[in-house]
């Protein structure tokens, strides 16, 4: 599996599938973490619940992929990947051309990196803030978010910044897969109260399809 996403400096290019692709530098995420600093420390990670992790890995993610008809063999980025629970499942089910997890919490990134190492998954994990991602513009086909944009620091402005970054890294026609407000209210009834995503402020992400708990927005193509 070749990686096409990378921290912006230094730039390397590899030829794949008849088009130029931007590749990651060869270092692991834990080695690069010191060079990527979070914007602030307001966000508090959700607690680890192993039973919830198991349900996500064996039920929620496969159901989401099936219900939303997500494509295979694409360049995939999971934002807010936390402990990396979803990464092995996404690797197995979507057979991505490249797979990257991103999270702002240094300790969770270390756990996720160890998880993919032990599972033998060909993926990379970055420590970075979703509001300022060290990812090349228009280099991703599918961005997956299990609630991060709802809970990013900075309230509505923070959510807008995160969605703007998602739109930036997606290729034209790329997909943003996200939880709906229904899913948020079921999973986090207190913490998600009153939260919504400012879609009107990121008009390049347009409604594509939904399946109750999950939805897909597609990035507008160039005219």
Overall description:
The protein has helices at residues 29-32, 50-68, 86-94, 106-119, 148-151, 155-169, 181-187, and strands spanning 12-16, 19-23, 75-79, 98-103, 124-127, 140-145, 170-179, 205-210, 214-219. It is an alpha/beta fold and 223 residues long. It has one domain (29-219): Vaccinia Virus protein VP39 (Rossmann fold). Strands 5-4-3-6-7-9-8 form a 7-stranded mixed sheet. It has a two-stranded antiparallel ribbon with strand order 1-2. Strand 4 (98-103), helix 4 and strand 5 form a beta-alpha-beta unit. The protein is globular, with a radius of gyration of 16 Å.
Key traits:
two-stranded antiparallel ribbon; 7-stranded mixed sheet; Rossmann fold; globular
CATH topology: Rossmann fold
Share in helix: 25-40%
| Name of the CATH first level | Alpha Beta
Taken in chain order, the helices and strands follow as: EEHHEHEHEEHHEHEE
Which homologous superfamily in CATH is the superfamily? Vaccinia Virus protein VP39
User: Mind telling me the C-alpha Rg?
Assistant: 16 Å
Please report the distance between the alpha carbons of the first and last residues: 32 Å
Overall structural class, as computed from helix and strand content, comes to: alpha/beta
What are the segments in which pLDDT stays under 50 over at least 5 consecutive residues?
7-49
At CATH level 2, the architecture is 3-Layer(aba) Sandwich
Beta-strand share of residues: 15-25%
Across the major sheet, the strand order is 5-4-3-6-7-9-8
